[in-house]
From TrEMBL:
It comes from the Bacteria. Residues 138-207 form the Phosphatidic acid phosphatase type 2/haloperoxidase domain. The keyword Transmembrane applies. SUPFAM superfamilies: Acid phosphatase/Vanadium-dependent haloperoxidase. InterPro entries: PAP2/HPO (IPR000326), PAP2/HPO_sf (IPR036938). Keywords: Membrane, Transmembrane, Transmembrane helix. It holds the Pfam family PAP2. This is Phosphatase PAP2 family protein. The chain crosses the membrane at residues 53-75, 81-102, 188-206.
Length: 213
């Protein structure tokens, strides 16, 4: 491949990933400045969901899903990659704006000493809680982005005629969403709002093309 062809192929598609610089600065700035959220979210359903530290494994698998789907679509299906960037990054931006206007948080995390157990998953959870304060939670970016990745992949060339791949993509995204409530990282309210932010794009970006007569 000639250098000019490579430049043409990478621009602007690969440059979309520069959004992560903006996102990370914005997110961590909010994480440091919103120390006393105005709105504490809670649903009666949250009380029915037990804390299970082993869900930290699918929770952290979000990073693998993000890297894998983004790289695969960028390499194999540029059109689907562009749709992923549009839906996921716009949704993330919307969530960050909500965090600024309606600073929210949770009081769901259990005290470790009351659990009466110690294992590798629980130690990972403790590290996660130290790094990620229980603020800026609704809508859940974890759930919003997972749904966007599942939508983009299942509508891409990589899943065309391969229903098992679609099922696996959605199952992985669903497991990540479940993990957010079992690890008490999010309330079911956050999950519902995060999915709503993602699925609002479904009839717009992924609507079936009308047949021409």
């Amino acid at each position: 491949m000639k250098l000019d062809q490579l430049r043409s192929w990478c621009r602007p598609h690969l440059w979309y990933q520069l959004y992560w610089v903006v996102y990370l600065i914005w997110f961590f700035w909010l994480d440091l400045t919103v120390t006393a959220p105005k709105y504490i979210l809670h649903s009666p359903l949250d009380d029915l969901i037990p804390f299970n530290e082993w869900f930290v494994i699918p929770y952290c698998s979000w990073f693998l899903l993000l890297a894998g789907v983004t790289a695969a679509l960028w390499w194999c299906d540029t059109a689907s990659y562009d749709k992923l960037c549009l839906t996921m990054f716009s949704g993330m931006t919307f969530c960050l704006i909500v965090y600024m206007i309606l600073p929210n948080g949770l009081e769901l995390r259990p005290a470790v000493e009351t659990l009466g157990r110690d294992n590798p998953a629980l130690r990972i959870m403790q590290l996660l809680w130290k790094a990620d304060a229980a603020v800026n939670v609704c809508p859940s970016i974890h759930c919003q982005s997972s749904a966007c990745m599942a939508m983009a992949f299942s509508h891409s060339k990589l899943a065309e005629g391969k229903p098992l791949r679609k099922v696996l993509a959605w199952a992985w995204a669903a497991l990540i969403c479940l993990s957010t409530v079992f690890t008490k990282q999010h309330s079911v309210i956050d999950v519902a709002c995060g999915l709503a932010v993602a699925f609002v794009w479904l009839p717009v970006v992924y609507r079936p093309a009308r047949a021409l007569h």
